[in-house]
Specification:
single chain, 285 residues, alpha/beta, Rossmann fold, three-stranded antiparallel sheet, 10 helices
Amino acid sequence: MIKKKQIERAQKLVTKGLINYQPYIFAEDLQTGVGFEFVTGKEGAGLVYWPTIDHQLLASPDMKRFIISNDNAHEFEKANEKLRITYNHFIDEICEHIGNVSKTTFADIGCNSGYFPVSFSLRGANKSVGYDRENYTESFELLNEILGTNASFIPLGYELVNASISSSEKYDVAISMMVLCHLSDALRHLSFLGSIARKAIFIWTLITDDDDYRIIYGEPNKYYRHDKFPFCFDNLIRPSVKLLYKSLELMGFTQIYEISNHKDGIPDLFCNVKNRAVLAIRPTA
């Protein structure tokens, strides 16, 4: 049972933009998640259901962008339940392929508020860590307190997010959820994931099905207005499936699995057509 003070902390984190994208239910009148935007295909449709929000908070353009219309509450809840099913399906598939979770360490690069690190911790992971360029420490603390988990958060520098330096820290499994599509140098980031993963990489990212080794770029500075060239291309970066697979093979990942969508998850068009979920495992794993 979530306590009133914990709900109030979640509300404050929503106002800071530190809980909104991932699918959580804190109370009947406080739910978050990008599922509604994924299902409708309408970016800006809203990330937070909070019908009792103080109207003064809605004076902020950011809050107006996050808060959904109350008329969409039912569809919002249904869409985020589908997103939770998809996320949990990915997590279950990773755990099944990797084996003994209690002896496995996980790192989620670009973790947002911590859905995946907390979920691995909930399943008994030996160690579960999230990294992001935004500081989600408070979000992790709240979720750990509510769920009795011990996932940890480590803030990344700008350069490490863009994978221009390597890390001496190693993990059994490295996770990258919708991160490559926001990075100008997707292959360098992919190489970074390979450098920190002892056993496996899991990637969910936008792709193009072009039968060639190529990357398609969108317009620059959509999400991070102050990023300079060459890191400014942060919108809809799409490597070809052929390039993605070849990159994984060149890093020594010999077992490559495409994780299909759950039948009750978000629409296939978004989950397995526009995007691809890939688990790559090293032969020594």
